Amino acid sequence: MGTVIVANIPQTLYVTIRRDELNELKDQHAELKHEVARLSALLAEAQRKVLGYQAQAQIA
């Protein structure tokens, strides 16, 4: 037979963060969102180029 594990009641964890740490995290979050947008645009452009190339290959 397996080991019996008693389920614990979920507990709330409170964390203290300094204002400067919070601002730094917000800045990092904004930078990452910008980077994701930039990479998404690059990916979309690459996909358009591939689709355009495939269409030209089919025409030829």
UniProtKB/TrEMBL annotation:
Coiled-coil annotated residue ranges, if any: 15-56
UniProt entry keywords in alphabetical sequence: Coiled coil
Pfam families: DUF6026 (PF19491)
Highest taxon of source: Bacteria
Xref: InterPro entries: DUF6026
Protein name from the UniProt record: Uncharacterized protein
Organism in which the protein naturally occurs: Pseudomonas typographi
